[in-house]
């Protein structure tokens, strides 16, 4: 099992990626574990391949089961996600902030790098991070 640290990052005035030591509280307390145990992936809705679809207020995202399993103590990384599966959409549906979800998915994909969207206020950022 590997442990990973959270890196908060944002863009400076020139669009360059900068790292910050300021991490939203909700991220600093997040346990991050990588478990390479495929049996833990079985509860995700069965698909023909490793891809799953997530629909956030009408915007569709596609990722892999392994990407989400990297953070097993979160909504997206645990079996709790199943209650959000929508048979009609054939996707996990969340009526949440679309723009913020791109940053949340990037957090999973990058294994812990969080880039806060510049057009989303801090309260919304923290609410969405706590939810997912």
Anisotropy-based shape: globular
| Largest sheet: number of strands, sense, barrel closure | 4 strands, mixed
Gap from first CA to last CA: 22 Å
* Helical percentage: 10-25%
User: What's the overall average pLDDT, rounded?
Assistant: 76
What's the Cα radius of gyration? 15 Å
Q: Approximately what portion of the residues adopt beta-strand conformation?
A: 25-35%
SSE map:
Elements: E1 2-3, E2 7-11, E3 17-20, H1 25-28, E4 33-34, E5 51-56, E6 59-64, H2 65-69, E7 85-86, E8 91-94, H3 98-109, E9 113-115, H4 122-131
Parallel strand pairs: 2-9, 5-8
Antiparallel strand pairs: 1-4, 2-3, 5-6, 7-8
Index terms:
globular, disordered N terminus, alpha/beta, four-stranded mixed sheet
Question: Would you give an account of this structure?
Answer:
By secondary structure, the chain is α/β, with parallel strands linked by helices. The protein has 4 helices and 9 strands; from the N terminus they run βββαβββαββαβα. It has helices spanning 25-28, 65-69, 98-109, 122-131; strands at 2-3, 7-11, 17-20, 33-34, 51-56, 59-64, 85-86, 91-94, 113-115. A hairpin with a 4-residue loop joins β7 (85-86) and β8. Mean pLDDT is 76; it is low at 1-10, 16-23 and 30-43.
Care to give the gist of this entry?
This protein has 132 residues and is an alpha/beta fold. The chain is built from four helices and nine strands.
């Amino acid at each position: 099992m590997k442990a990973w640290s959270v890196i908060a990052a944002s863009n400076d005035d020139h669009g360059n990626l900068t790292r910050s030591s300021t991490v939203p509280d909700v991220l600093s307390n997040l346990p991050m574990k990588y478990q390479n145990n495929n049996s833990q992936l079985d509860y995700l809705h069965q698909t023909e391949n490793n891809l799953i679809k997530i629909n956030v207020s009408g915007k569709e995202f596609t990722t892999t089961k392994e990407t989400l399993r990297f953070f097993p103590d979160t909504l997206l990384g645990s079996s709790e996600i199943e209650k959000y599966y929508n048979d009609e959409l054939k996707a996990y549906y969340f009526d949440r902030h679309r723009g913020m979800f791109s940053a949340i998915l990037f957090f999973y994909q990058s294994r812990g790098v969080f880039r806060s969207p510049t057009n989303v206020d801090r309260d919304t950022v923290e609410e969405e991070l706590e939810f997912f």
